[in-house]
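Hey everyone, long-time lurker, first post.

I ran two proteins through the pipeline my lab uses and got sequence/structure pairs for each. Pasting them in order. The first:
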Amino acid sequence: MIKIAVDMMGSDLGPSILVEAIKQYLEKEKDVAFTLFGDKETLSQLIKEGERVSIIDAKDVIPMEIKPLDFLRKKESSMYKAIASVKNKECDGVLSAGSTGGFISGATFLLRNIEGVSRAGLCACFPTYKRDKGAVILDVGANNNNTAEDLYGYARMGRLYAKYILNVENPSVYTLSNGVEEGKGRDEVVEAYKLLQERKFPNFKGNSEAREVLDGEHDVIVTAGFSGNILLKATEGVASMMNRLIKDSFSYSFLTKIGYLFARRGFKDMKVRMNYKKYGGAILLGVNGVACKAHGNSDAYAFYNAIDITKKMIVSGIVDKIRSDDDKGA
């Protein structure tokens, strides 16, 4: 039985949405059990404890902005207890929709980095032009400053994620830069490019500009956390703007509304293909345990998918694959 720890107290929409997703997952998957960390009185009214559901009382909530040392003082919080359950081998993985900063700090402090990993990275899967094919991008915000060795580590972990979670046989790997030519970019990008070339990293293709990363041809994009987070938020902003512009265009006049009736099937298909919620959330790769961060505003559909990606991470044994000397690309 796979055991997943869930921080129930950090969601923007409240624990009832998370419980809805958990109930759906329990119905479909019979080999998964949940340990829920949160206000036991509230949670007991939403879901019954049983063979595959247990509730651990933890009323404290990690605030959205918290310093790393302050997190360590919050030992009674739902997030701290959920992460600690993985550290103590009571659960196989942890999932939270709470504070991203708190989650990264907690997972890094409690689970520690895998030996040989200089820095853990937050790995996100982005929808691309190609149907049902995502692009793996990391780091998207776990660190503000990175070295070339950090980026090399992200390439290795991102490649493993693409291979064993997205089932891409030989993922293409790129470094994110402001030009495709060798020598373009910040110092850490230029040096990482050299490392990947010198160590003959499998299927390393060179630099990629941001405008190309979602074309469906780029499997893994390696970037420092600062620029990765900007890419993440810029992409989300453009997608939101395009959605509003399309709605405004079709509501412009009676004729445009008629036009929508003919085009709506295509737009519904586009909406499905661009829906980031199908990927559930981001994974903190490089720590000694499976740690998944769901979006704070996750609805039941998004959180269900976050549970599913957490399970896939556990089943794939990706932590052991990162820990081993196999497939390092050197």
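...and the second, right after it:
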Amino acid sequence: MIAMEFKHIPVLFKETIDSLCVKPDGIYVDCTAGGGGHSSAILERLENGRLIMIDQDPQAIAVLTQRFGNDDRVTIVHDNFSNIQSVLQKLGIDGADGVLADLGVSSHQLDVAERGFSFHKDAPLDMRMSMQGMSAADIVNTYSEPELANVIFRYGEEKYARSIARAVVKAREKKRIETTFELIDIIRSAMPAKALRDGHPGRRTFQALRIETNSEISRLPDAIESMFSCLKVGGKLSIISFHSLEDSVVKNKFKEFTQGCTCPREFPVCVCGKTPRGELAFRAKTPTDAELEENSRSRSAKLRCIGKLK
């Protein structure tokens, strides 16, 4: 059964749960509930509080329903976390004491070959977290060469993006690119020998395609704004990111929330009236050596947390 196979190793687990400062009677939202790892820990600290679990992956929803569907404190919602405001509005909730978002791909999504996320397994080139809409294969086979190069360079920071895009377009003229290994062979053919010795050649391109397929970066700023706006005063927003592009968006949004007066320094008094909306709980936290040894997928993770002031 899917529910028995779905697994995910939560990253920065204790640090994340502690950052939420869970109150026994509070209202919390796990925006990327996955297999329920973080949610379970939140529930352990809740008494008569409430937990909203959101996930866009239908397989995750099946797991969450099996694990937590009979808990009166829990509401499970199949949606994207960027829609948190409408989700809470429909539930009649006007504010949360804590919101959590783990932006990483789950271990389940990586380990189940047919999801198409992993470059280690031959499978349909899918990568859709929601299992709906445009797939990575659609992108690879329909984007123009400049569009592909831009996606691969921007989201994968791949310096051979142009040659990879050129090779993809040439290959798809003969036949549609359908599988992960087909794409990897094309990527290899477009890279010099020295680059092939520097880690897996498909790592950056696969990251870029996954981000584009799921609109991960483009919708993130608005999603963070929505999550923060859903907090009660004093509530905490904790976000775990997994690469520099994500972390940069989170860092900049949090900086925006903490910004106060914007008047020129030479002004004797403030006339803009702006005060900080939030306060950072701590500097970014990263995995310990012990966690890195136990879970290599945590190596690029960063946790940031902000509290709402108004």
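Reply from user beta_strand_b:
Welcome! Quick read of the second one: Confidence is low (pLDDT under 50) at residues 1-5. The first strand starts at residue 27 and ends at 30.
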